[in-house]
Specification:
- Keywords: ATP-binding, DNA synthesis, Kinase, Nucleotide-binding, Repeat, Transferase.
- InterPro entries: E_motif (IPR046848), P-loop_NTPase (IPR027417), PPR_At4g14850-like_plant (IPR046960), PPR_rpt (IPR002885), Thymidine_kinase (IPR001267), TPR-like_helical_dom_sf (IPR011990).
- The protein is mainly α and 486 residues long.
- It is built from 23 helices and 5 strands.
- The protein has a domain of 111 residues.
- Helix content is 63%, strand content 6%.
- The strands form 2 sheets. It has a 3-stranded antiparallel β-sheet, with no helix packed on it. It has a two-stranded antiparallel sheet with strand order 4-5.
- Helix 11 runs antiparallel to helix 12, helix 14 runs antiparallel to helix 15 and helix 19 runs antiparallel to helix 20.
- It starts with 20 loop residues before the first strand and ends in a 9-residue tail after the last helix.
């Protein structure tokens, strides 16, 4: 039986296309009725292929069907009808041209329609299509961006010639997935293979170093970028600025900003957010206004940094003005995190009732981050009634957040409500809920060492504790007396 594809989708005028049907007449003829595949057309195409026809005739008809399907999918893709294109493709039993597969996959990547990309890959396998190196790379990018690093790695290993593009895709995928160490490992392997990194490589590497706070690795990567005379774009420069600030080197971060020639709102926001992370409220507001004076319009990220700075600086009136300015002056709709920053601002100032009213009147009441901010503020100021209220709302929205259960436990413990503490801890234990342990890390000779709270999993734990004991003895011999009054 010869089958082309079947598809039912609504036409713009409300009518419905006919589904493809395949049937055989008493005389032995095969009838393939194909519904129209172009928008606005309702013509039904009827193809008759005699089963006794010559092989050449059959192949010619198959060629026509191939070209028709190939052209249809391209037209749908170009007109933005990706869903229909993928639906038609996945009902087909024909192999497409590599360029058509590439076009469809690129649309899936661009639109972040990763599930549709998987369906295209499944269709390739079903019809026995063997992708070339270019298509394998395109599939690798799709899976890496989708967070399916296992499949991406399989495709990566099957590549005969690993160019810079698949290396960059794998590094970026690992960093995006939170596997920064793996991503940096791939970066070093890539360099060992003789390839020269480009600006896309460095954007991922700087993000990885920022997350791990590995200043030395970040500086080395920055050195490679400078020596290679690789001109960084806005994304690279912003990642570089962010890396230096997160690695507690604001001077280098500001220097990187000063050397950025092609600045835009992303670059400015990286600088402003960086100073905000270090509690430099004055610098945050100074560079915010300088950015505006130089003709750049702030975005939602910029305002979030400014509101957070106002919160830490206790600038309630200024915070209100910036919050109102978002919509009034720049047409930016505040989101959940902006409302949470305002709750934190009011809460830190002890204006809990005002913060609560603000939450009730906000359009983001169903965002757990807002109730989480209120919960934290009420705990700091010891308002147990509001702690219970905020906790109730928060856990209805996010019942499995172990971190906030710990916050609630600490609040109850502050007031000596040990029965409530035991009740919460019992409920957490019964449900198998555990808070991710806190940890610190240090970079020594290009290696990042992690130390988890209450853990002794480090391979050099015994030597570390011996060193600490020796240091304590040296301090005592020197006459040091620790201050334990606090």
């Amino acid at each position: 039986m010869f089958s082309l594809c079947s598809s039912v989708y609504p036409e713009p005028n409300g009518s419905r296309c006919l589904q493809t049907n395949v049937s055989r007449s008493p005389s032995g003829e095969i009838h393939v009725i194909v519904g129209p595949m172009f928008a606005g057309k309702t013509t039904t195409l009827l193809h008759r292929i005699k089963s006794e026809s010559s092989n050449g005739s059959f192949q010619a008809e198959a060629r026509k069907n191939f070209l028709r399907l190939d052209g249809t999918l391209k037209d749908l893709c170009f007109s933005g009808r990706l869903t229909e294109a993928v639906g038609i493709l996945c009902r087909a039993e024909l192999q497409l041209h590599s360029k058509t597969y590439s076009l469809l996959l690129q649309e899936c990547i661009f639109r972040r329609e990763y599930k549709k990309g998987r369906r295209i890959h499944a269709q390739m396998i079903t019809v026995g299509f063997v992708p070339n190196e270019y298509l394998k790379t395109k599939l690798l990018i799709l899976y890496a961006k989708a967070g399916d690093l296992e499949t991406a790695h399989i495709l990566f290993d099957k590549l005969l010639a690993k160019t810079l593009i698949p290396w960059n895709a794998m590094i970026a995928g690992c960093v995006q997935k939170g596997l920064e160490e793996v991503g940096l490992g791939l970066y070093y392997k890539m360099r060992q293979s003789g390839l020269t990194p480009d600006q896309y490589t460095f954007a991922s590497v700087f993000r990885a170093c920022a997350s791990l706070a590995t200043l030395e690795q970040g500086k080395r990567a920055h050195g490679v970028l400078i020596k290679g005379q690789i001109s960084g774009n806005v994304v690279v420069n912003s990642a570089l600025i962010d890396m230096y600030f997160k690695c507690s080197s604001p001077t280098d971060g500001h220097l990187a900003f000063d050397k950025s020639l092609d600045r835009n709102v992303i670059t400015w926001s990286a600088l402003i957010s960086g100073y905000g992370q270090h509690g430099k409220v004055g610098e945050v507001l100074e560079f915010f206004h300088r950015m505006i004076n130089e003709g750049f319009r702030p975005n939602s990220v910029t305002f979030l940094a400014v509101l957070s700075a106002c919160s830490h600086g206790g600038l309630v009136n200024d915070g209100w003005e910036y919050f109102l300015s978002m919509r009034r002056d720049y047409g930016i709709q505040p989101r959940g995190k902006h409302y949470a920053a305002m709750v934190d601002l009011l809460g830190r100032a002890g204006r809990l009732e005002e913060a609560y009213e603000f939450v009730l009147n906000s359009p983001c009441m169903e965002h757990s981050v807002i109730w989480g901010a209120l919960l934290g503020a009420c705990r700091i100021h010891g308002n147990m009634d509001m702690v219970k209220l905020a906790a109730k709302q928060f856990f209805e929205l996010e019942p499995e957040n172990a971190g906030k259960y710990v916050v609630l436990c600490n609040a109850y413990a502050t007031f000596g409500l040990w029965d409530s503490v035991a009740e919460i801890r019992g409920a957490m234990k019964e449900s198998g809920m555990k808070k991710e342990p806190g940890y610190s890390m240090i970079e020594v000779q290009r290696l990042v060492h992690f130390f988890f709270m209450g853990g002794n999993s480090h391979e050099q734990t015994e030597q570390i504790y011996e060193m600490i004991k020796d240091m304590i003895c040296i301090l005592k011999d020197a006459g040091y007396v620790p201050d334990v009054s606090g």
